[in-house]
Please model this.
Amino acid sequence: MTRRLLRVVLAEFGVDDDSAVTLGRLMRDDGVEVVYSGRLDTTEQVVRTAEQEDPDILGVVRGASEPEGLAEALPGVLLFAVGNGPSRFDNAFETPEEAANWVSGVRSHTVETPSDRRR
Model:
C-alpha cells in the first residue's frame, strides 16, 4: 500500500497556541493529511502519539521548552518545530507560514513512499 498524501502529526508542546490551528489549515489546504494532537506535556506523550499515527513528519509548536530525544525515539520521521527562540531541531521556524512552505517542499519527495500502516 502506498500513501497518497503526506501525513503530518502536529502537536502543541506545553503550550496552547492558535498558530498550530493556522499551520494545520495551511498544510491541509496544500494537500497534506494533518493529524492534530492538541497539547501534549511530555516527550513520552509526543513519542506515543507519533508511534500510533505513523507520520512522515512530526511538527511541534513549542513554547519556552521543546521535547528532548525525539530524533532518537522516532528514527525515520522528519521533525520540525515552530516557535520563537533557539531550537535543537534541524528544521525550526518562527512562523506557521515558514513551516507550511517547508512541508510543501518535502511533499514531492514522499508521496509515493510505501506505508507500513494497514487500513
In short: The chain has a mean pLDDT of 84. The radius of gyration is 13 Å. The chain has four helices and five strands.
